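Friendly challenge for the regulars: who can give me the structure tokens for this chain first? No prize, just bragging rights.
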Amino acid sequence: MSISNLEKNKCCGCMACVNICPSCAISISKDKDGFIYPAVDSEKCVECHLCEKICGFNPENQSKSIPIKAFSLVHKDRTTLRSSTSGGAFTALSDIVLKNGGIIFGACMNDQFDVKHVEAGDSTLRDSMRGSIYVQSNIGNTFSKVKDYLEQGRHVLFVGTPCQVGGLMNFLQKPYMNLIGVEFLCHGVPNNDFFKAHIKFLEEKYSENAKWYTFRNKKYAWWTHGIEEITFNGGKQKSSKAVQAYNSFFHSNLSLRPSCLNCTYRSYERTADITIADFWGIEAVTGKKNTAGVSLLLANSAKGYDFIHSINQNEVDLEEIPFEKVRFRIATKPAKAKRDPEAFWKLFHEKGYVELVNVYTDTSIIGRVRFWIKKTVSKYSN
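First reply, four minutes later:
Bragging rights claimed.
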């Protein structure tokens, strides 16, 4: 395997190779679709092959284990629960680290709709990491920063996709007791350029500049899997059928990174210390229903198990569940595109985002009415 000529479906863009290169010979470039890939400067390369040895997408480099236990979690603070995508597990876990003077690393979207991994040493910036972001985050030099804090003896909680957590673990090349790696169950990731094309499409459609975007707004009920909503500078909010186009492309697997259709992390065996997700199907497991959101946590290591048990029980409702009862939540096969991704991207480049919406989503009056009914029913049954 050579980092310089990897097939696109064998690179997840975790940037571990960029962070570890001792001669700074690896940079990141974008392909025509907007996905990032490593580019090697042969004149700087010293042929150490570290990039190949730590490539987290290579199954031979992955260290995994079957989860020990599963948990359901609902945060008791209503503000935290409302601003979280599911039950508030990320806040509960990160609070432990912050109270010990540690650092949180997670994805955050800025005012320009760039999605990047950032660090937080307080709850204000940490809170901006809440909520699902269906865009691949730019890791940058995050892995190197994580290592610096760990070497200083600081506690670190890193949250990312399974391949990002796997990339970090391989980059570090040794275990650290003061690190907690948290992955979320991942469907796949579109790229930032494509997301910005969606934002531009909506700005032109509604003749206003966008201020913010919510990928899963729970005011329309958590159990519906959430509804996308855009907020414009003038304060107007839209959650129309057109706004949902991005989510439609995402769930049809057409806009995903090629490696997501070849994901080596979809397995009952996990890489991170802790896995978090929405607890879909909780009614069948516990007999309890919660329309405000419930988190599923998997303890994949003894360290992860102990860390979950250190959550302040006065702040959450936490229930331990045998992993065997939640195995159905773990996807073991890579995502599969419902239509031809090459034709999808070809149309995007030739005709633009508007044509993607026209061809790949139901823009008919009947389709729009059905969505309005779903949204209305969801909102008033929450």
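The chain has a mean pLDDT of 92. The CA atoms of residues 213 and 276 lie 22 Å apart. Your move, everyone else.
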